[in-house]
Amino acid sequence: MSSWLKKEDKVVVIAGNDKGKMGVVLACGEDRVLVKGVNIKKKHVKRRSENERSEIIDI
To answer: What's the pLDDT at 59?
Structure first.
């Protein structure tokens, strides 16, 4: 797969929940590619002290 795709290539996702999204290749593996802005999940983080606020972060 690495012969077809290189770092910083622009790609379109053709399968999965993010089908149709465009992004830039960050890393290439043997059987998968890491694309910026694709497969982002949200995580709810509770506050740990009275001074902090709880928040939702993107992973």
So the answer is: 86
Q: What is the largest CA-CA distance in the chain?
A: 52
Count of C-beta atoms within a 10 Å radius of residue 33: 19
**15: which residues sit within 8 A by CB, 6+ positions away?**
none
* Tokens read off for 38: 């694709």
Both tokens of residue 32? Answer: 């998968």
User: pLDDT tens digits, residue range 5-58?
Assistant: 899 999 999 999 999 999 999 999 888 899 999 999 999 999 999 999 999 999
Q: Which of 16, 7, 5 is nearest to 38 (CA)?
A: 16
pTM higher than 0.85: no
